């Protein structure tokens, strides 16, 4: 399994538009990318306009297909106008374990 942590920041005056864009990207990903196991975004309680999106993918091929998909490239490009700074994206190869 591939896990992605994407830390992203909106310019304060565009936080609402950025939030809406993240929601649209999440919805299109869940609807169109069969290799997506989970996709959720949260906004920081202490830093308005700071978000983290956590994604889980079946494998690297599924993530690569998502990154190349039209809904992702268009959605990401639409968010560019509202970004405060570049994203910090961390990708992990992981496997579930029992506790």
From TrEMBL:
The keyword Oxidoreductase applies. It comes from the Bacteria. Keywords: Monooxygenase, Oxidoreductase. InterPro entries: ABM_dom (IPR007138), AI-2_Isomerase_LsrG (IPR050744), Dimeric_a/b-barrel (IPR011008). It comes from Glycomyces terrestris. SUPFAM superfamilies: Dimeric alpha+beta barrel. PANTHER family: ABM DOMAIN-CONTAINING PROTEIN, QUINOL MONOOXYGENASE YGIN-RELATED. Residues 2-92 form the ABM domain. It holds the Pfam family ABM. GO terms for molecular function: monooxygenase activity. This is Antibiotic biosynthesis monooxygenase.
């Amino acid at each position: 399994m591939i896990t992605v942590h994407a830390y992203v920041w909106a310019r304060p005056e565009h936080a609402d538009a950025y939030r809406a864009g993240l929601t649209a990207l999440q919805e299109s990903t869940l609807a169109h990318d069969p290799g997506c196991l989970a996709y959720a975004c949260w906004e920081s309680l202490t830093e308005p306009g700071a978000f983290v999106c956590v994604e889980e993918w079946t494998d690297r091929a599924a993530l690569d297909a998502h990154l190349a998909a039209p809904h992702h490239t268009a959605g990401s490009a639409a968010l560019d106008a509202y970004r405060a700074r570049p994203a910090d994206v961390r990708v992990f190869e992981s496997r579930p374990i029992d506790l």
